[in-house]
From TrEMBL:
<dbReference type="InterPro" id="IPR000835">
    <property type="entry name" value="HTH_MarR-typ"/>
</dbReference>
<keyword id="KW-0238">DNA-binding</keyword>
<dbReference type="Pfam" id="PF01047">
    <property type="entry name" value="MarR"/>
</dbReference>
<feature type="compositionally biased region" description="Polar residues">
    <location>
        <begin position="1"/>
        <end position="21"/>
    </location>
</feature>
<feature type="region of interest" description="Disordered">
    <location>
        <begin position="1"/>
        <end position="23"/>
    </location>
</feature>
<dbReference type="InterPro" id="IPR036390">
    <property type="entry name" value="WH_DNA-bd_sf"/>
</dbReference>
<protein>
    <submittedName>
        <fullName>Transcriptional regulator SlyA</fullName>
    </submittedName>
</protein>
<keyword id="KW-0804">Transcription</keyword>
<feature type="domain" description="HTH marR-type">
    <location>
        <begin position="27"/>
        <end position="161"/>
    </location>
</feature>
<keyword id="KW-0805">Transcription regulation</keyword>
<dbReference type="InterPro" id="IPR036388">
    <property type="entry name" value="WH-like_DNA-bd_sf"/>
</dbReference>
């Protein structure tokens, strides 16, 4: 006996018989579709950013890091990890890359030599502004097939998870 497989709408059998309804997707089917779709959207988003002149090293997650630092003015690395909901070692990887591109710099906390503060360099704010504009435009391009109502419905569904 063949395992049940969920088809895409294009692959579903067509028939005048209304008793043929598409199979109900399993939770696994939906999760796999969400993962594949997220990967595809991320790839398209990064491609659009590149077409809009954003350097490849300035990925969406790295821009999030820069924006979080910009919002605080100066922030401890541990507080940045908490704010972004990511692990400290991930913050370190982002910080290393952004520091190498001269967009941020580290300073030692004078009250706690074990802690490190992050601040933007003078080169960062114009890059952040350009990246924000490009990200907005890329987002519109990637999701152009969704109507305003569709976007609202998708947002509601995602928030319900």
């Amino acid at each position: 006996m063949k395992p049940t497989q969920t088809n895409t709408p294009e692959e579903l059998p067509t028939s005048m018989d209304s008793s043929l309804s598409p199979p109900i997707p399993t939770a696994g089917d939906i999760l796999q579709l969400l993962i594949r779709t997220t990967h595809r959207l991320h790839t398209q988003f990064e491609e659009h950013l590149a077409m809009l002149g954003i350097p490849a090293y300035l990925t969406g997650p790295r821009v999030r890091v820069l924006i979080a630092i910009e919002e605080e003015g100066r922030i401890r690395m541990s507080d940045l990890a908490t704010k972004l909901g990511i692990k400290a070692r991930t913050v370190t990887q982002f910080v290393d890359a952004l520091e190498q591109e001269a967009l941020i710099h580290r300073t030692t906390d004078p009250d706690d030599r074990r802690a490190t503060f992050l601040q933007l360099t003078d080169e960062a704010p114009p890059m952040i502004a350009n990246a924000r504009a490009a990200m907005s435009q890329a987002s519109d391009q990637v999701l152009q097939s969704l109507s305003a109502e569709g976007r609202s419905q998708l947002q509601s569904l995602l928030f319900s998870l």
